[in-house]
């Protein structure tokens, strides 16, 4: 079986940044059929306090975070929403969040929100400014002033450096539903949540239990479009790194029998030489057309490099975009 093309980089070169949003893509498939892809939503819709705290903890202290406190019944909120979305599309070196004050009141209370819309500006987790009311000019001015000029990596026509090999990609960790993370055949003291969930911290790793196989299921809070998967293994333990992987989308209750028999959305097979040259950090580029409207991603680790009964994973990250609305299902073909 032919394997997919892989892009592999050293662990020292792994970093992330925003992906430039697009409004619509039509991909021709065969004769007159087209696949219609929903527009991207570059801001993050906050569903719970835990997600909000995770976003702040994973954002650098120098980066501006803008929070739009709104409510569905608020007319001015709806009026300024297109302005906020345009800013989130253009000011790519800032992080834009939306918080529905009725759904997540704890965050609104934290910032003493008394009127909607209210825009709060943070750096390093600290509030540095605020704007009340639907004022497009004032909002634009504050965002541009507080965000500052874009770093060189966002400049048009800038040359990519060896430290920005994931430039143009956005980590989807903030929209992972960490409460519903699941991994079958993990050992009790080295779990998936230890490297990807609320318990994640440096030095943790995921390890298999009875044999080398793992079945990881990662659910999202919103439908996503996946572009790349990064898997990291300790360079000194490369014989325990995954070798053959099968990916499935939108099967939140997938078990080992189904993973063995279902046709995967995409499949990869790595060699020990590839993993060694990448110093344990491997980026797998996904077939974009297949990874649309993803509500959950399942990663079936079939085997490892050394044929050992233990598989080890030290880090996982997913890159892509949050999709605006739509169901968590496959693309639909639209007639011309």
Automatic annotation (TrEMBL):
<keyword id="KW-1015">Disulfide bond</keyword>
<dbReference type="Pfam" id="PF00085">
    <property type="entry name" value="Thioredoxin"/>
</dbReference>
<feature type="domain" description="PITH">
    <location>
        <begin position="161"/>
        <end position="336"/>
    </location>
</feature>
<dbReference type="InterPro" id="IPR036249">
    <property type="entry name" value="Thioredoxin-like_sf"/>
</dbReference>
<dbReference type="Pfam" id="PF06201">
    <property type="entry name" value="PITH"/>
</dbReference>
<dbReference type="InterPro" id="IPR013766">
    <property type="entry name" value="Thioredoxin_domain"/>
</dbReference>
<dbReference type="InterPro" id="IPR010400">
    <property type="entry name" value="PITH_dom"/>
</dbReference>
<protein>
    <recommendedName>
        <fullName>Thioredoxin</fullName>
    </recommendedName>
</protein>
<dbReference type="InterPro" id="IPR037047">
    <property type="entry name" value="PITH_dom_sf"/>
</dbReference>
<feature type="compositionally biased region" description="Low complexity">
    <location>
        <begin position="153"/>
        <end position="165"/>
    </location>
</feature>
<feature type="domain" description="Thioredoxin">
    <location>
        <begin position="35"/>
        <end position="148"/>
    </location>
</feature>
<dbReference type="InterPro" id="IPR008979">
    <property type="entry name" value="Galactose-bd-like_sf"/>
</dbReference>
<dbReference type="InterPro" id="IPR017937">
    <property type="entry name" value="Thioredoxin_CS"/>
</dbReference>
<feature type="region of interest" description="Disordered">
    <location>
        <begin position="140"/>
        <end position="165"/>
    </location>
</feature>
<dbReference type="GO" id="GO:0005737">
    <property type="term" value="C:cytoplasm"/>
</dbReference>
């Amino acid at each position: 079986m032919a394997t997919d093309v892989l892009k592999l980089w050293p662990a020292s070169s792994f970093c992330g940044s925003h992906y430039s949003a697009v409004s619509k893509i039509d991909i021709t498939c065969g004769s007159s059929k087209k696949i219609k892809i929903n527009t991207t939503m570059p801001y993050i819709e906050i569903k719970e306090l835990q997600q909000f705290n995770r976003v702040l903890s994973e954002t650098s202290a120098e980066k501006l975070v803008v929070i739009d406190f709104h409510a569905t019944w608020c007319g001015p909120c709806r009026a300024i929403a297109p302005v906020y979305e345009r800013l989130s599309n253009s000011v790519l070196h800032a992080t834009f969040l939306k918080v529905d004050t009725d759904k997540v009141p704890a965050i609104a209370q934290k910032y003493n929100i008394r009127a909607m819309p209210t825009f709060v500006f943070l750096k390093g987790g600290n509030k540095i400014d605020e704007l009340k009311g639907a004022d497009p000019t004032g909002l634009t001015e504050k965002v541009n002033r507080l965000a500052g000029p874009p770093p060189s990596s966002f400049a048009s026509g800038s040359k990519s450096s060896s430290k920005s090999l994931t430039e143009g990609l956005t980590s989807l960790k903030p929209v992972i539903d960490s409460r519903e993370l699941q991994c079958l055949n993990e050992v009790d003291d080295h779990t998936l949540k230890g490297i990807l969930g609320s318990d994640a911290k440096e030095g943790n790793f995921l390890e298999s239990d009875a044999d080398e196989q793992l079945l990881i299921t990662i659910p999202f809070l919103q439908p996503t479009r996946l572009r790349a998967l990064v898997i990291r293994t300790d360079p000194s333990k490369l014989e325990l790194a995954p070798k053959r992987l099968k990916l499935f989308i939108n099967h939140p209750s997938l078990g080992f029998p189904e993973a063995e028999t279902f046709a995967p959305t995409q499949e990869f097979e790595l060699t020990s030489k590839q993993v060694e040259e990448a110093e344990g950090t491997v980026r797998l580029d996904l077939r974009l057309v297949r990874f649309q409207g993803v509500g959950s991603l399942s990663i079936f680790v079939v085997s490892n490099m050394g044929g050992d009964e233990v598989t080890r994973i030290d880090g996982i990250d997913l890159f892509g975009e949050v999709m605006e609305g739509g169901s968590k299902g496959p693309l639909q073909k639209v007639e011309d």
